[in-house]
Amino acid sequence: MTRPRFLLACCLCRRTIPPDSDAYALDREWVRRFPLMVGTIACPACALHDFTWGCHNREDQFVEGHLPVADGGPDIDSWSHIEKYGSQGGIILTHPESGLLQGAEDYLRHIAGRQGLDAAFTRRLQAALDAWDAYSSV
Question: pTM of the entire structure?
């Protein structure tokens, strides 16, 4: 069985992320700042160039409502709030809920059907797929 292809839409600009391009998983501070995002997987242009911002105001305090970086790392600007980057397939597997919202349902179902996957990963992926199916059937 061949792996299904997918066209992943950027969570910010909604354009298709080129298949040979990396993808960027954004954290909850991005969601706070851009509440109309669909998912949290962004294209390189949006994550690195088009939507840059700082975390501090002129008094060098965090801007109002700021959500700190989850791992306690440096918290300076938009780049600090990129959780992970890498191949689209890898990012989709670590963020399946966003992958489903952004166009990778067939790919995730294909992966879920494979044998020998890590049990915790399989449970998380199946939970995401079950929630997607429940939402889609409404």
Answer: 0.91
